[in-house]
TrEMBL record:
Location, primary (coarse class): membrane
Residue ranges, annotated region (Disordered): 683-703
Species in which this protein is naturally found: Drosophila rubida
Protein topology in the membrane: Multi-pass membrane protein
Entry coiled-coil feature ranges: 95-122
One BP annotation, GO: vacuolar acidification
Protein's name in the database: V-type proton ATPase subunit a
Length: 832
């Protein structure tokens, strides 16, 4: 957790790698994932870089893998999960073997697919021919053998007298898609002027397309005609409507014989198809065992060559030079990776690393784990921290779930959140393997520890509020005593418990359960939660202002402590901090058991009215026997606080610009130029580099070259924003009270309007009715109170951190550290 206080210290390094060791060295760096490379070839077209041929080679391998994977998924074969045994990047010899294997597999798959399509096309033609022969039996007479002309075979020459006797009547048989039948009939009618007799029969079972496998519904037809000219026209129409024509003998015996031959050929072809499918399945099953490993190896290889394209070749063409950002804590890891890469290929010249100085702002890198990653993502969504400035994520781990719980204070709803978060945390290894859960599921799973803590804190605040699904728990017994007799209670609807006689001490922890029955419950809780919201808000903002001191000290901007922090904290504490103090003072001073009248609750002044009078220098006449102020010197103290607060405004407005104006000419500092060596010509293992020149400037902006007019304008905007935001941000924390009240009232409405109806049901219909109403109550509770109200409280908590808290000290003008990491590349492609 200490690493999260501020971002990691970064070093800009130059690495010199021999070309023969470049591939293995970058592969080792990709496995470590702690180096962000810079592009040294920005002016070179991406297609003209040194390793573009290798990248294209990897693209071709990826295309082949995608084709094979598509064929595997088409056959319903499940690819194995290799998350626990991820292969390393292949060496050059493995690349050649992999390329040959993929080439062979792809060729075999293409050949099998083409053969399968051809055989299925033949199978479809034979099936259609069988259907034609079987369905045309009813179109001809079984006793009379007609000498008819067949379309495809071209019937033999018949006897001239018979032909004249029959009038040269011929026919064409075939199949056509069912949706084309009506248009086909109309076209035949038009070209023949009604001289074609068409008979058709729809096929009951659909046929399968050989290329796509989709079902095709077809119709068998026979068209009778007279004349050779009409026959040619009919064939042209059949071609235009994509109808398939098949030979059909006119003799019944010939048709029967032909049907038998077709069925025999279909059986043989079906056997060949099944054997082809078995062979294809065996090939795909064998390939599927290694395909995920091959895919990852190719991705790593492609990433390595993409990274090598960022390197620059020296003038001697014997060395590759690269620049990268590296966390100083990981410099020894990078040095070891370079040594391992050179040793893997037996290079006699070792690769080495130089740390260079620069005036560029380094990237921001906050080292996180699975617990803190979710909170860091919340901060980065607002803006990545400037280099080395304080990181709010460390404190957000506690303040975020706590502020959420203040608005979501219900023990029952908190337990639901707690169980959901605990389930995701305890089953995270199994749930992390879910790849297609969707974006919403990934958000929930990524924030599982946030949900767990929100549930825990909601259980705590629900226990303090003594609120469980809008009901209270009587754990310690109420400290309020009923001093009325039964007759008085039954005859009077409005009775009050005077605190002086009915209150027997203080409830041990949380809210007394008797308030659940009180008619002034909402009035009491409103006052309590409103004051609580202001107290929490002022403390949160004071903490945010104090965090700016850590930035000023780290960046050695000690003048800003006196010129910015001191007036800001005085303005906040003397006005709103004083208001918080008066709330506590009011709680402690006024009591129902007080002997003096001016210390009884009836004489307690309103803190809000007192604060308004303080700002406007006004007075409010007190009640008879009461005092206007809570203590003697309060009037003078309040005037002093307001005057000091008003002085803080010009202090913030003019202090820093005047300081810059009078000290600008005196500053003489050494300017480090980009690329200047730090003196560590070669960084030895375990050696610490000299600090970079931008360590002192960090995330804060310098004003050395900025015109004074712009400095005055910038400081005026900053002062106006702080003064106004102090007032508006304090009022903004009242959302803690508002959402807590809304949540409690919605929960009470659901109980009284829904569940109580089932609890009041009597008779035989009572249990079934209670079961149905209980289910509806559970549904509304989960959908409205847990999910919708939980999302609302989450968003309001996020706003309180982003605007009210982080604006006091956080700039968020940095850019993230994006290291070259195989794990990040593979995980990112899987999410896409």
């Amino acid at each position: 957790m200490g690493d999260m206080f501020r971002s990691e210290q970064m070093a800009l390094c130059q690495m010199f790698i021999q070309p023969e060791a470049a591939y293995t060295s970058v592969s080792e760096l990709g496995e470590t994932g702690c180096v962000q490379f810079r592009d040294l070839n920005c002016n070179v077209n991406i297609f003209q870089r040194k390793f573009v041929t290798e990248v294209r080679r990897c693209d071709e391998l990826e295309r082949k893998i995608r084709y094979i994977e598509t064929e595997i998924k088409k056959d319903g074969i499940t690819l194995p999960d290799i998350q626990d045994n991820i292969p390393r990047a292949p060496n050059p010899r493995e690349i050649i073997d992999l390329e040959a294997h993929l080439e062979k597999t792809e060729s075999e798959m293409i050949e099998l697919a083409q053969n399968e399509v051809n055989m299925k096309s033949n199978y479809l033609e034979l099936t259609e021919l069988r259907k034609v022969l079987e369905n045309t039996q009813g179109f001809f007479s079984d006793q009379e053998v007609l000498n008819l002309d067949s379309s495809n075979r071209g019937a033999g020459v018949v006897d001239e007298a018979t032909a004249q006797h029959r009038g040269r009547l011929g026919f064409v048989a075939g199949v056509i898609n069912r949706e084309r039948v009506f248009g086909f009939e109309r076209m035949l009618w038009r070209i023949s002027r009604g001289n074609v007799f068409l008979k058709r029969s729809d096929l009951d079972a659909p046929l399968n397309d050989p290329a796509t496998g989709h079902p095709i519904y077809k119709t068998v037809f026979v068209a009778f005609f007279q004349g050779e000219q009409l026959k040619n026209r009919i064939k042209k129409v059949c071609t235009g409507f994509h109808a398939s024509l098949y030979p059909c003998p006119s003799s019944h015996n010939e048709r029967e014989e032909m049907v038998k031959n077709v069925r025999t050929r279909l059986e043989d072809l079906n056997l060949v198809l099944s054997q082809t499918e078995d062979h294809r399945s065996r090939v795909l099953a064998t390939v599927s065992k290694n395909l995920p490993s091959w895919s990852i190896m190719v991705k790593k290889m492609k990433a390595i060559y993409h990274t090598l394209n960022l390197f620059n070749m020296d003038v001697t063409k014997k060395c590759l030079i690269g620049e990268c950002w590296v966390p100083t804590k990981d410099l020894h890891i990078v040095q070891k990776a370079l040594s391992d890469g050179s040793a893997a290929v037996g290079s006699t010249i070792p690769s080495f690393l130089n740390v260079i100085d620069t005036n560029e702002q380094p990237p921001t890198f906050n080292r996180t784990n699975k617990f803190t990653r979710g909170f860091q993502n919340l901060i980065d969504a607002y803006g990545v921290a400037s280099y080395r400035e304080c990181n709010p994520a460390l404190y957000t781990c506690i303040t975020f779930p706590f502020l959420f719980a203040v608005m979501f204070g219900d023990l029952g709803h908190g337990i639901i959140l707690l169980l959901f978060g605990a389930w995701m945390v305890l089953s995270e290894q199994k749930l992390a393997r879910i790849k297609n859960g969707g974006e919403i599921w990934n958000i929930f799973f990524g924030g599982r520890y946030i949900i767990l803590l929100m549930g825990m804190f909601s259980c705590y605040t629900g226990f303090i509020y003594n609120d469980v699904f809008s009901k209270s728990m009587n754990l310690f017994g109420s400290n309020w005593v009923n001093n009325y007799n039964t007759t008085t209670v039954l005859s009077n609807k409005h009775l009050q418990f005077p605190p002086k006689t009915s209150a027997q001490g203080i409830y041990p922890i949380g809210l007394d359960p008797v308030w659940q029955l009180a008619e002034n419950k909402i009035i009491f809780l409103n006052s309590f939660k409103m004051k609580l919201s202001i107290i929490i808000g002022v403390l949160h903002m004071v903490f945010g202002v104090c965090m700016s001191v850590c930035n000023f000290v780290h960046f050695k901007k000690f003048s800003s402590i006196f010129l910015e922090f001191v007036p800001q904290i005085l303005f906040l504490l003397l006005l709103f901090g004083y208001m918080v103090f008066m709330m506590f003072f009011k709680w402690f001073k006024y009591s129902a058991t007080a002997e003096l009248q001016d210390e009884t609750p009836g004489c307690a002044p309103s803190v809000l009215i007192m604060f308004i009078n303080m700002m406007l220098f006004k007075n409010t006449p007190p009640l008879k026997g009461c005092e206007e102020y809570m203590f003697g010197a309060q009037a003078g103290l309040q005037k002093t606080f307001v005057i000091i607060g008003l002085i803080c405004v010009p202090w913030m407005l003019l202090g820093k610009p005047l300081y810059i104006k009078f000290t600008r000419g005196r500053r003489v500092s050494h300017v480090n130029h980009n690329g200047e060596l730090t003196g560590n010509m070669e960084l030895a293992e375990g050696e610490t580099p000299l600090p970079t020149g931008n360590e002192q400037s960090g995330g804060a902006h310098g004003h050395d070259e900025e015109p004074m007019g712009e400095i005055y304008i910038h400081q005026a905007i900053h002062t106006i924003e702080y003064v106004l935001s102090t007032i508006s941000h304090t009022a903004s924390y009242l959302r803690l009270w508002a959402l807590s009240l809304a949540h409690a009232q919605l929960s009470e409405v659901l109980w009284n309007m829904v569940l109580s109806l089932g609890l009041q049901a009597t008779g035989y219909a009572g249990p079934p009715m209670l079961a149905v109403i209980f289910g509806a109550w559970c549904l509304f509770t989960l959908a409205i109170l847990v999910m919708m109200e939980g999302l609302s409280a989450f968003l309001h908590t996020l706003r309180l951190h982003w605007v009210e808290f982080m604006s006091k000290f956080y700039e968020g003008l940095g850019y993230p550290f994006q290291p070259f990491s195989f794990k990040t590349i593979i995980d990112g492609e899987e999410e896409e």
